[in-house]
Amino acid sequence: MKKIAATIAVSALAATGVEAQEKRQRVAPQAVYETAPGLGDFTDDVLFGEVWERGELSPRDRSLVTVATLVSTGKAAQTGSHVRRALDNGLKPEEIGELITHLAFYAGWPNAMSAVTETKKVFEERGIGALANSTAARIVLDAKAEATRAATVDANVAPTASALADLTNRVLFGNLWQRPDLSARDRSLVTMAALIAIGQPEQLPFHANRAMDNGLARAEASEVVTHVAFYAGWPRAMSAVPVLQRVFESRDVASKIAAAPAEVKITRAGDGRAAAPEQYFTGKVETSGFFRGDAPARIGGATVSFSAGARTAWHTHPLGQTLFIVSGTGWVQKQGDAVVRVAPGDVVWIPPHVRHWHGASADSAMTHFAVAEALDGVSVTWMEKVSDEDYAQGREGE
Question: How high is the pLDDT of residue 263?
Fold first, then answer.
């Protein structure tokens, strides 16, 4: 009998524990469970039961990202509850106020003003009085990076919108970004979140790089995209992924360059002299002096010497090609156009994807220096050889 009683007691405690756990996990308002029960389950089990528990961002940072997303997308009705959570997660009232101020510039004054109204209600609930600007020393921005940024604004914005360029340099970066009320890292964090949330991925490379320069780890930057997906929607997050991927790749390349000793490379005249592949050329053709720039450069080239009557096959270049005529007389033809004669000192530019050929004239050898950039490792696409009939057009045109 005692054993049965003990078993019943343990079962009761277990049931009570399960009920308490279920009650603790119910985060969404009751109306959600009654109207959209699936949404309630995902809110409890995935958003708060999984995403908010992930260690890639601290609870404080997740609150920064969430409030930034809500403010920038004008979700005033949801702002208050997350401001409460933000305070519970360690954000200072001054930091929340400065977040709203910062996002006025990135998401517009109306969204910021709406956020102020809801945030003030929470502050009054918590007994938080009127805030004042911080008297701490202003944040000092990297002088070299700022000079580069300002020069870019002056070159690209000032000619069209001079007042916007002035305000960008003087107010946005010359004042707002230097305010000590929010750290440089946190400003970058909320800016990234806002840009993703409002669907402005083209602005993300600059600010993602700035965020990581300001101390945001790569894993944290990735997690910002994941977190924002729940508050601004999957399409906005998915659009940001390839942009952030390119930022990561460019930083990897920059790190490799910085780690490797910078060397000037000289390719001597005649280095690697060899007969050109017969499948791509007609007649006697020699190549030498092959070179290729180190990443991130994509440029490469070689000296190509054609005997009289020799020429390339038809081909294209994904990013175009430049020919510097060194000696002799040559012919160049774009498909559908007449053959054009070229001589020493001439420079020929072939645009991307233009089908063409080039080589020596019928009566003279020709040497040119060819330069092209590679796209995804490919700098040329070879096609069929130039027929004798097509080549003869050059003689007819002279």
Answer: 80
Q: Which two tokens stand for residue 329?
A: 């007389």
Peptide bond into 296 cis (omega under 30): yes
Q: In angstroms, rounded to a whole number, what is the distance separating the alpha carbons of residues 330 and 369?
A: 12
User: Taking a C-beta distance cutoff of 8 angstroms, is the pair 364, 313 a contact?
Assistant: no
Q: What is the DSSP string of 11-41?
A: HHHHHHHHHHHHHHH--S-HHHHHH-HHHHH
Looking at CATH, the fold of the domain delimited by 274-397 is given as Jelly Rolls (2.60.120)
Question: Does residue 387 contact residue 315 with C-beta atoms inside 8 Å?
Answer: no
Provide the 8-state DSSP code for 357: E
Burial bucket for residue 302 (CB in 10 Å: 0-12, 13-18, 19+): buried
Contact (Cβ atoms closer than 8 angstroms) between residue 308 and residue 363: yes
- Rounded Cα distance, 40 and 153, in Å: 46
- Cα–Cα distance, 186 to 146 (Å, whole number): 18
pLDDT of residue 239: 96
Please state the domain extents for the chain.
54-132+141-258, 274-397
Asked, colleague to colleague, whether 54-132+141-258 and 274-397 share their fold, the answer is no
Q: What is the pLDDT of residues 76-93, one digit of tens each?
A: 999 999 999 999 999 999
> How far is Cα 3 from Cα 7, in angstroms, rounded to an integer?
6
Give me the pLDDT at residue 2, please: 45
Which residues of the chain, if any, have pLDDT below 50? 1-24
Q: For domain 54-132+141-258, which architecture applies?
A: Up-down Bundle (1.20)
* Res 397: pLDDT: 62
pLDDT of residue 1: 45
